[in-house]
Amino acid sequence: MTTRSRTFIAPIAIALALTLGGCTQVGDTTAAERPDPSPVVAEAAGIFADPAKNTPDTLASAASAQDWAVPIEVIDCQTPGCEGTRTASVYTPLAPSDLTQEWNLCAVLPHVKDPYWVGQNAAMVAEAQRMGIALQTYEAGGYTEISNQLDQLSNCAAGGADAIIASAVSNEALNTRIEEIAAQGIPVIDAVNGVTSESVAGRALFDYCTLGGNLGRHLKETGKKVRAVWFPGPAGVGSLEQLMSCFEKESAGGDVEVLGVQYGDTGKDAQLNLVENALSAYPEMNYVIGSATTVDAAVGPLAERGLEDKIDTASYYFTPEVYSLLDSGKATCSSAGNDLVLSRIAVDMALRALENKPFVGGDYVGTAASVICGPAAGKQHNNLDTLVKELNLAPDGYRPVFTVEAK
Asked: Are residues 223 and 304 in the same domain?
C-alpha cells in the first residue's frame, strides 16, 4: 500500500498541505540520492537508437507492444531548450512486476481542446493501465489559465498523489509551486512542454528546437521561395520562441523569410481570426506555419480567397486532422515528433522516481523527429506513408479519460 491516501481530498486542505510541506527544504530528495541512470544503448527490444536503422513497421510494432520500446535522445543539460549534447538511445519501461506498491499519480495538462493533447492523455492513460496504477488528470482549459493549473497542482499534492506529472501552461509561472511540492518529497516529472524549475525529478520533453529546425532545414533544402508567417500559439512562451529561433537558424542560407509572427490561443476560432488578419496584412505570404489548429483553420479562408494552390501550410506537430489534411492535399507538411510516447515515458519516470530505480539513459529525454509531407508537397517530398501513427496519433475515436483506478 502507498504511504499516501488513495482519495483526492477537497481543495480546502491545499493551504495546510503546502504550509506543512514548507518545513522541508527544496531539494531534500536530490538527484544525488538516486541511482545513476542506466547506460545509453545502441539497440534494445529490436529497436535501434539510430532512427535510420528502424523501419516504420518495426517502430509501429514496438510502440504498440505491451513491453514497448522507442528510440529517444538523452539530453545532457538541466533546463528545457539548453544546448546540451543529444545522445541517441532506446527507452524501455518498467514492467508491472517491478512495482512494490500501488502508486497513485496525478497529472496536469494545458487542455484537451485539440487532438494533440487528447493524444497525450491517451498515452498517459494507456501506461497507467498497463502498470495497474491510479492516475487522476486535470486540464487547465488553455494556455492563459495559469491560476487554474497552479490550483490543480495544489489539488494533486493535497489529494494524496505520490508523484505528479506536469505538462505546463507556462515555462516559469509554475516554478514556485513545483518547488513547494518537491519540498514535500513528492516527485514532479516535467512532461512535454517544459518548465525551468530545477526541482523536477525528470524531464520527458517535446524538442521544440529539433522540430522547428527540421522544418526550417526542409524548406531550405526544397530550394523554393518561402515567405512565411508564423502562428506559434500564445505570446511569452519560451519554448515557442525557441521553436521559431531554431527554424530561422536552420533555414538560414535558403530563400526562406519570416514576414511576421501572429500570436494567440490555439483554439480554432482564435487561429481562424489570426489567419484571416495575416492574409490581409501580408499579401506576399506563401506559407502558413503554425499549430495543427492553425493549419486546420486556414483551410476555409484559403479556399474562399482562391489561395489554396498559392499558399502552403505546415504544422509544427502532428494530429489526426493534420494527417487527413496532408492526405487530401489541403496541407503541405508537418513536423512529426514521434512524441506521444513522452507521456508514457513521464509515467515511467514517475514510477522510477518512486521506486528509486535508475532512469533510462538520463533524467532528460526527448524523441527523434522528422518532417512528413503529403501530395501537395510534390511527388519528390511526399513521404506520408512513412508516418508511424502509433507514435504520433491518438487511437481512432479516443475520448479523454481523467480517472484511472488502480488494479
From this structure: yes
**Do both 296 and 346 map to the same domain?**
no
From the CB of residue 257, how many other CB atoms can be counted at a distance below 10 Å?
14
Helix (H) or strand (E) holding 404: strand 403-404
DSSP E strand stretches across 175-311? 188-192, 202-205, 226-231, 256-261, 287-290
Domain check: are 199 and 284 in the same one?
Answer: no
Q: Across the strands, what pairs with 87? A: 74
Residue 139, beta-bridge partner list: 109
Q: What pTM was estimated for this model as a whole?
A: 0.83
7 is written with which cell numbers? 482519495
Joined together, the cell numbers standing for residue 346 give 513521464
CB neighbours of residue 113 within 10 Å:
17
Dihedrals phi, psi of 270, to nearest 5 degrees: -65, -45
- pLDDT tens by residue, 219-264: 999 999 999 999 999 898 878 888 999 999 999 999 999 999 999 9
| CA pair distance 270, 207, nearest whole angstrom | 25
Could you report the per-residue pLDDT of 355-381, keeping only the tens digit for each? 999 999 999 999 988 899 999 999 999
Same domain, 258 and 307: yes
One domain for residues 85 and 119 = yes
Do 148 and 199 lie in a common domain? yes
